[in-house]
Amino acid sequence: MEKIPYYAQFESRDRVLDLIAGKLPYADDPLWQRSGATDPEEYAQWSSHICGMACLKMHLAHWQKRNIPTMELMRQCRAYGGYVVGEDGSIKGLIYRPFITFIAEEYGLSAELREHTPIEEIYGLLDRGYVFIASVHPGIRTPEKEPPKQGGHLVYVFGKNSERREIVFHNPSGHTPATQEAVHLDLDTFSKFYAHRGILIKT
Fold first, then answer.
1. Of 6, 75, 106, 148, which is most buried, counting CB atoms within 10 Å of its CB?
2. Peptidase C39-like domain: from which residue to which, for each copy (predicted)?
3. Helix, strand, coil percentages in the chain from 3-state DSSP, rounded to 5
4. With helix as H, strand as E and coil as C, how does 95-127 read?
């Protein structure tokens, strides 16, 4: 299987568990500047919301050989309405339809929103020139545990193992190398976390 570049949504990929657990404040990520944030405060505000931008960064790095910082992608996407910041500072997004317009107009990508779509259907497309940004529960980093719900996080699905009926994906918030890059999960396990929606991209 072709190697796909991996990028976490947090710049210090070896500190993800500390960051999401609050042991290391987002603003204290020692590599925050790599994100393209203007300051630690901007990084702290956005880094937990940009899993979709990390997925896009991986896609662009592989298919267009472009390495664009996640915060730069976020700002571009926000200009299209892909993120909305409330008066209280709350962040709504990733909003799929504006995101699809954004990647079409800025990067020439052909994508479509898929809703109510079982993972088996996506599995059938993965060797036909498609990749999928899938909505899953963030607990997918510990697949042995039952998630409380489905959705809330995005992963980049790009491959399959036909012998084992597994899909292969990068998880922007994985906390170990094994849960970050080229994660293999069987369809039944993935489905426990999968919200039956996401963004299908033609490669």
1. 6
2. 4-172
3. 40, 20, 40
4. CHHHHHHHHHHHHCCEEEEEECCCHHHHHCCCC
pLDDT higher than threshold 80 for residue 199: yes
**pLDDT per residue over 117-164, tens digit each?**
999 999 999 999 999 999 999 999 999 999 999 999 999 999 999 999
Give the rounded percent of residues in the chain with a pLDDT score beyond 90: 97
Res 2 pLDDT > 80: no
Contact predicate 171/184, CB 8 Å = no
Tell the residue number behind the tokens 């809330």, with chain if given: 152
Residue count of the chain, please give it.
203
Return all residues near 162 (Cβ < 8 A) that are at least 6 apart: 127
Give the separation between CA 179 and CA 52, rounded to whole angstroms: 17
* The 3-state secondary structure of 127-160, one letter per residue: CCCEEEEEEECHHHHCCCCCCCCCCCEEEEEEEE
